[in-house]
Specification:
With 230 residues, the chain is α/β, with parallel strands linked by helices. It has helices spanning 40-47, 87-91, 112-116, 119-129, 152-160, 179-195; strands spanning 14-16, 26-33, 62-71, 74-83, 102-108, 134-140, 165-170, 209-211. Strand 6 (134-140), helix 5 (152-160) and strand 7 (165-170) form a beta-alpha-beta unit.
Length: 230
C-alpha cells in the first residue's frame, strides 16, 4: 500500500551495484528510525537483498551500510544508518540526524500502542536535529495482516498531519513485500531532488551529503555482538 505520491519508476533506468565502498566518496545519508522491534535492521538487510531470517538482536548504537546505484547516467552512493530504537539515545545523539537526506520513520502494523503511538516522538526528534530531510512513513510487518492494529486510515491521518512526509508505504522486510519499490523510491527521490534546478543551492545548505570513511563501516562491529539496546 502506498498513499498518494507514488513515483513512476518506469521513467528511470536504475541499476544497483551492490555493497560498494569508495574511500571519501560523497554519499546521501538515509536513516531508519523508530521504536525497537519494528524491524529496522530487517528492513536494511532486505534492502541490501540479504535473506532475513527471524528477528535480530537490537542494534546497540549505530550501524552503517552502503549501496551504490546508477540512475540514468548519475551514480548515487547511499549510506543507510541503522539506529538503536531508544528515543532517549536518539535525543542525546544529535549526530545521528546530522546531514540526513531521507528518514524512514518506521512502525509495525501489529503494534499500535507502542510503535505507532510513539511516531510523534521520533518525528519531533528528527525535526529538532535535521534540516530539510525527506521523510517516508513505513508501516512494516504487513505480512502479519491477521494481527493488524494500525489501519491504513490511521497512517493516512498521521501523514496528513505532517505535510513534509513524502511517501507512505507498507512493507514486510521478512517477505520482502515492497522492498524493491522502497529502495527505488529512495534512490529516485535523491536523484530528483539533486537534479532539479530550484534545489541547486549552496553545498553547505544541502542536507544529507556526507563524506564516507572506512571507519564509518567498521566502528560498530564489536558493539553489535552485545545483546540489548543502548
Amino acid at each position: 500500500m502506498i498513499y498518494e505520491d507514488e513515483i513512476d519508476r518506469s521513467k528511470y533506468k536504475i541499476e544497483y551495484n551492490g555493497e560498494k565502498f569508495s574511500k571519501d566518496l560523497e554519499a546521501y545519508k538515509v536513516i531508519v528510525i523508530g521504536r525497537y522491534g519494528v524491524g529496522k535492521t530487517s528492513i536494511i538487510n532486505s534492502l541490501m537483498e540479504k535473506e532475513v531470517e527471524g528477528e535480530y538482536e537490537p542494534t546497540m548504537s549505530i550501524d552503517i551500510k552502503n549501496i551504490q546505484a546508477k540512475v540514468n547516467d548519475k551514480i548515487i552512493q547511499i549510506s543507510i544508518w541503522d539506529s538503536c530504537g531508544n528515543d532517549k539515545f536518539a535525543q542525546n545523539t544529535p549526530n545521528l540526524f546530522k546531514n540526513t537526506y531521507i528518514a524512514l520513520l518506521v512502525y509495525a502494523i501489529n503494534d499500535k500502542e507502542k510503535s505507532f503511538n510513539e511516531l510523534n516522538i521520533w518525528y519531533n526528534i528528527l525535526k529538532e536535529h535535521s534540516y530539510g530531510s525527506i521523510i517516508f512513513l513505513i508501516g512494516n510487518k504487513n505480512d502479519l495482516e491477521k494481527e493488524r492494529e494500525v489501519t491504513i486510515e490511521d497512517a493516512e491521518t498521521f501523514k496528513n498531519n505532517k505535510v513534509d512526509i513524502k511517501i507512505f508505504l507498507e512493507t514486510s522486510a521478512l517477505k520482502r513485500n515492497n522492498m524493491d519499490k522502497l529502495l527505488d523510491y529512495i534512490t529516485i527521490s535523491i536523484y530528483e531532488k539533486e537534479t532539479k534546478e530550484e534545489n541547486k543551492i549552496d553545498d553547505a545548505m544541502k542536507p544529507g551529503r556526507i563524506t564516507l570513511k572506512k571507519e564509518d563501516f567498521t566502528k560498530n562491529k564489536e558493539k553489535k555482538k552485545k545483546k540489548g539496546c543502548c
